[in-house]
Amino acid sequence: MAQKITKGIKALLEEANAAVRTLSVDEAKALAGREDVQFVDLRDPRELEREGRMSGAFHCPRGMLEFWIDPESPYAKPQFQQDKTYVFFCAGGWRSALAARAAQEMGLTPVAHIEGGFGAWKKSGGAFDPPQAKDPPQAKNEEKS
């Protein structure tokens, strides 16, 4: 029997974007480097390796967000226990909209997310650290020095 999805991603994103502040890239750039603002990169580690990182952002994989925010969780991170504005971003702005809403619903405030995500940030010339070049794999028979 096929599943009947009663609320799709479009509706979820509309609700999230209506509930949380969405920053343009220019607005986000104006906040970069401020001590009272914490940028949170929700992208997968493979995305960071492939695309680079926003300078100064804290990396929190989307799947760990709620666990890292909750101070009662055994996984709680100190980055989320501070009196700061939290600006979430992902690759294109969808995951960050949902994450910012979840964080806000948990009581983390103020929160926002970047429209267009890291892709829009890079395209507009936002500061970022490029991907690190990987060392080529060594042959199995090659001795390591």
Total DSSP E strands: 7
Helix content: 25-40%
| Annotated CATH architecture | 3-Layer(aba) Sandwich
The CATH homologous superfamily corresponds to: Rhodanese-like domain
> What is the first-to-last residue Cα distance?
59 Å
Mean pLDDT: 93
Structural commentary:
This protein has helices at residues 9-19, 25-31, 45-51, 65-69, 94-106, 117-123, and strands spanning 21-23, 37-41, 53-54, 58-59, 85-89, 111-114, 128-129. The chain is α/β, with parallel strands linked by helices. It has a single domain (16-127), classed as 3-Layer(aba) Sandwich (Oxidized Rhodanese, domain 1), CATH 3.40.250. The chain has a 5-stranded parallel sheet, sandwiched between helices. Strands 3-7 form a two-stranded antiparallel sheet. Helix 1 packs across helix 5. It is globular. The chain starts with 8 loop residues before the first helix and ends in a 16-residue tail after the last strand.
Main features:
145 residues; alpha/beta; Oxidized Rhodanese, domain 1; globular
In short:
With 145 residues, the chain is an alpha/beta fold. It has helices spanning 9-19, 25-31, 45-51, 65-69, 94-106, 117-123, and strands at residues 21-23, 37-41, 53-54, 58-59, 85-89, 111-114, 128-129.
Task: Produce the secondary structure layout.
Layout: H1 9-19, E1 21-23, H2 25-31, E2 37-41, H3 45-51, E3 53-54, E4 58-59, H4 65-69, E5 85-89, H5 94-106, E6 111-114, H6 117-123, E7 128-129
Parallel strand pairs: 1-6, 2-4, 2-5, 5-6
Antiparallel strand pairs: 3-7
Helix pairs in contact: 1-5
